[in-house]
Specification:
Layout (H helix, E strand, L loop, with lengths): L5 H21 L42 H4 L10 H23 L5 H9 L7 E2 L5 E3 L2 E5 L3 E3 L2 E3 L3 E9 L2 E8 L3 E6 L15
Antiparallel strand pairs: 1-2, 3-6, 4-5, 6-7, 7-8
Helix pairs in contact: 3-4
Length: 200
């Protein structure tokens, strides 16, 4: 006859509970079908997780991004150019690019030097009236946009260039210590021939 002590009983009960929990957890997530006769074509149904519908807060056509990303960044989209205006803008970009390449090679990217070099191509500096009305000229050269670093704004070395070719066509460019770029586009909604800085 076996005799059990209270300590042995506790160990037995604890072991039995542990094994019972382990066995039940190993079957977790499995789908059990009913017994099917051999050769039967019946299979147990499988449920497939259905994908949730599109979020009501994301714009149609947005693959990845914040809700209303397109609306929030509309100010960064340039206007449309007509084919004729696009062709004229590309001609002007082709004239400007070698000048910026030369200035970059000479390490001259300050607005004053860039403006002087581009005025030599025959462009006239753009002038505006007190309410922003354009009075003539097509070229604007200015310093780079400031950016926030640590605890204050810093304006990097370089120059931004905006050349208005037609009302619907611009050459947008920059030259700075690390690189330069020249491209054509329609005017931006808020900044004309200058690509706007990123906002928050």
């Amino acid at each position: 006859m076996l005799t059990s002590t209270p300590g042995a009983r506790r160990r037995f009960v604890a072991t039995a509970l542990f094994l019972g929990a382990a066995v039940s957890l190993t079957a977790c997530g499995e789908q059990r079908g009913t017994d099917v006769a051999v050769g039967s074509s019946t299979t147990s149904p499988r449920s497939s997780p259905s994908s949730p519908g599109a979020s009501p807060y994301v714009e149609p056509g947005t693959v990845d991004g914040a809700p209303h990303n397109g609306d929030n960044n509309a100010y960064r989209r340039s206007g449309e150019m007509s084919p004729a205006s696009a062709k004229d803008a590309q001609k002007e970009a082709d004239r400007i690019e070698p000048v910026l390449k030369r200035l970059w090679g000479q390490r001259k990217w300050d607005p004053k030097s860039v403006r002087a070099a581009l005025l030599e191509l025959g462009y006239e500096e753009e002038r505006t009236g007190p309410k922003g009305k354009r009075l003539g000229g097509t070229l604007t050269v200015r310093e780079m946009y400031p950016r926030y670093e640590v605890d204050h704004n810093v304006t990097p070395e370089g120059a931004l260039i905006g050349l208005r070719v037609h009302d619907d066509a611009c050459v947008t460019a920059f030259v700075q210590k690390t690189n330069y770029e020249v491209k054509t586009n329609g005017p931006f909604m808020e900044t004309g021939c200058f690509e706007p800085p990123y906002g928050h």
